Structures are given as structure tokens and as C-alpha cells.
Amino acid sequence: MTHLLTRRHVMALMAAFAAMGSAGFAQTDTAAAEPVTVANHGIGDAAAKVKIVEYLSFTCPHCAAFHGEVYPKLKADYIDTGKVRLDYHEVYFDQLGLLGGMLARCGGELRYMGITDILLDKQRDWAGAADMNAAVAQLKKIGLAAGMDDATVDACLRDQALAEALVANYQKNIETDYPGDTFSGTPSFIINGTQHSNMDYAELKAIIDAELAK
Questions:
Q1: What value does the mean pLDDT take over residues 137-156?
Q2: Percent of the chain with pLDDT over 90
Q3: pLDDT at 129 over 90
Q4: pTM score above 0.70
Q5: Residue 16 to residues 67, 107, 116, 159, 201: CA-CA distances in angstroms?
Q6: Which CATH superfamily is domain 7-17+42-212 in?
Q7: Mean pLDDT throughout 44-69?
Q8: Of 186, 163, 164, 171, whose CA–CA distance to 106 is shortest?
Q9: Which of 7, 74, 86, 192 has its CA 20 to 30 A from that of 160?
Q10: Is 53 exposed, middle or buried (0-12, 13-18, 19+ CB in 10 A)?
Q11: Which residues make Cβ contacts (< 8 Å) with residue 207, sequence separation at least 6?
């Protein structure tokens, strides 16, 4: 099975933030933190005949390529016309990917899709940064562009309870959809209950049209 983050990695990430005093980060007191529950978000009519679950990582170049090349056509042809519902199930291979997931949640459900768009469109700027400080600086720029202030983004990115909830959520998703360690990587798709690997738009269109014809 592809290597994924665990709670141990979350603790390491928060410890790294605690050492980033110049960036204003400090580890939160999880003993006093309220439990956090996270939900999966997506776009499109919940009653659409075709339902797609995309497993994506914010640091996966193939996910960024799919988002830039295939997603706009999928959205225009099927999502905006009410034929397809697309839900995102985030996957965290690394600490930066988890930070991206945390930032996507900073602005609540209404900002989630917009921040996700920017994270994937600008992936090289933040995921390809020279070090963690530079990556966080780029993520903060994205947060500000999405309408949040510095304090909100800082608090969100150092929220250990949120980080642990996100990791628990992706673990639950994968255990449900890919039992027996069958998950292999991102992006991957579940279309009306059937698993599919990454594909171009022509392949995706053919699958969707076949589902719509049933």
C-alpha cells in the first residue's frame, strides 16, 4: 500500500511548527482542544445520476494535472449541468499535503472549493518551496487571497486537533473504499461505486456517458 501519514507524522509536523518561532507557530494544547469532526466536500447536484469520488493529494503532480486539464471540461459538461456530483476525499502522503488540507478547511465549506482550486493551480509555488518556512509563507498568501487574515490562517495551520481529524477521516475513507490495503495512489476515482485509476478526459467521458445511459 502507498505510504500515508499517521498520527505520529502529525505530531512531528506540529513539533516542527513549534520550532518555527519566527513564523509565529506554536504547538496547540490538544488536551484542552475541543474534538474536531470533518466532512468530505465536493461540487455538483447531490441528486446527480453519476457520483464521482476523487481521491486526491494536494502535493500530487498528477492531481494538479488532472485538475488543470480534465476538471474544467468535467465541470462544464457534467457538473454544471447537474449530471455529475464530484466529491473530494483528500489523501495525505506528506506533511505539506496535510497543511494544504488544513488550509482548504480554514475558510469553511463555502471557501473549500475555491481554496482547493488555488492549491492545485499554484502547487509548484508552495509544495515546491525550498523549505517548510517558505512553503508556509506561500500557503499564507493563498489564505489571504481567499479572504482570510493572517491570524486566521496561522491559527488554522497550527490546529493539531484539525490535523488529527483530517488524518482520521482519510484513513476511514480508504478503509471503507479500499479494504485490504488495495489503495494504490492518486488521483483515483470511484464512479458510481466502481474503482478507476487516473485517466484522460476521453476515458472519463466514456464512463460517465455509459452510466448516464443506464
A1: 92
A2: 64
A3: yes
A4: yes
A5: 30, 24, 24, 13, 40
A6: Glutaredoxin (3.40.30.10)
A7: 97
A8: 163
A9: 86
A10: buried
A11: 191, 196, 199
